[in-house]
Amino acid sequence: MKILNVALPKGRLGEKVYEMFEKAGLGCPAIKENNRKLVFENPEMGVRYFWVKPSDVAIYVERGAADIGVAGKDILLEYSPDVYELLDLKIGKCDMAVAAKEGFQDDRNKTLTVATKFSNIAKRYYSAQGRDIDIVHLNGSIELAPILGLSDVIVDIVETGATLRANKLEVVEKFQAISARLIANKANFKFKSERIEKVRAELLKQTEIEQ
Length: 211
Ligand code: PRP
What we know:
The chain has eight helices and eleven strands. With 211 residues, the chain is α/β, with parallel strands linked by helices. The strands form two sheets. The chain has a six-stranded mixed β-sheet. Strands 8-7-9-6-10 form a five-stranded mixed β-sheet. It is elongated and about 60 Å long. 32% of the residues are buried. The structure holds 1-O-pyrophosphono-5-O-phosphono-alpha-D-ribofuranose. The site of 1-O-pyrophosphono-5-O-phosphono-alpha-D-ribofuranose has 12 residues, from strand 9 and helix 6.
């Protein structure tokens, strides 16, 4: 049996995703040993897992180092990797949103300064409105930017809203629902289509049960 190479996003979401793969019949018990190993293989089941930084999953899959993987819709929208998006796993749900300091009033005559990790998403969102913006690209702790006057607004992910509240920011608009997606390398999908289709079908059943 050909080994199926799976890139999982490291962290809490990845653990949920692994549980789904385990239920789908692709268990790899060694993965639950709490150590710093990044590759786990179960030759009997013909599967190999890699723990990958969540924002890198699509790169591994696009380049074929992994046959399939799980990436957030945010990453797929931001980087537009050349991969197949096979399934919405209906987990890791959150929203892409514009947020600003409480009471912020947008002056449409002025260029809006936008801090974000998601520069492409932000540019598309504002260009669709014909709004002039200046992007400040940051890599994390985006909520700091309006507090320190680095930007007028932020474009970022909101899940519970706790980070915004703790920093006296508020949602201006939620404009894109986000969730985890099963993705596949286009060439490898052809070689391993039967196995990948089977995994997709098993995972689909689980998303339907949870609805
Ligand atoms: C994400 C996001 C927000 C936060 C939203 O940050 O950028 O900061 O989670 O979640 P909440 O609405 O439940 O508070 P992450 O933890 O990925 O860290 P980062 O700030 O370094 O991007």
